[in-house]
Design goal:
This protein is mainly α and about 180 residues long. The chain is built from ten helices and no strands. The chain is elongated. It starts with 7 loop residues before the first helix and ends in a 6-residue tail after the last helix.
């Protein structure tokens, strides 16, 4: 198993078995072997990222997820996880960049659009934030948080009538929303 790159898949499968047995450290070792022998083994990079994320090694998880996305750029779930890791590490600019890159590659899901809109708002990019939040609301018009952020964005853009409409929508969807 350890001598030939043709066994990268065997290392990956061994890692899956170790995970199923509840042995993440041994699984991680097998996945590391898989990517050592085949640096383009996307599934092994994804599993490495997940293990490192679960064990609290955010930087290593982010590195593995970046490698995975290099190989599988259309995976929205991993893109969201990477953006969330960046955001939780106070690296919001990088989180936004990951989501922007995803927007160029494929149609983002509502959750990614909401996260991107929220981050764009935080950076004062009101036009981009509004665009992403409106796209989010196209697929989920009952997302009160997206409406709330849209209201904030419109206040920032000095579109007060638009902000009022957005906040009224929040209260329509969630009448007991705290002030």
């Amino acid at each position: 198993l350890k001598l030939s790159p043709v066994y990268a898949k065997a290392h990956y499968n061994l890692g899956l078995c170790k995970l199923a047995q509840g042995r993440p450290k041994e699984a991680e070792k097998a996945f590391r072997q898989a990517v050592l022998f085949d640096p383009d083994h996307a599934k092994a990079w994804r599993k490495l990222g997940a293990i490192r994320e679960e064990t609290g090694f955010a930087d290593e998880a982010m590195a593995a997820f970046r490698q995975f996305l290099r190989l599988s750029p259309k995976d929205g779930e991993v893109r969201e996880r990477l953006a969330a890791l960046y955001e939780s590490s106070n690296r919001s600019q990088e989180a936004l960049a990951v989501l922007q890159m995803g927007a160029q590659v494929f149609s983002l899901e509502a959750n990614s659009l909401f996260m991107g809109g929220r981050l764009a708002y935080a950076f004062g990019r009101f036009e981009q934030a509004e665009s992403w939040l409106l796209r989010c609301l196209e697929s989920d018009d009952l997302n009160w948080e997206a409406w709330h952020y849209l209201g904030n964005v419109r206040v920032g853009s000095k579109d007060f009538p638009g902000a009022v409409r957005a906040y009224e929508k929040v209260l329509e969807i969630k009448p007991n929303h705290p002030p």
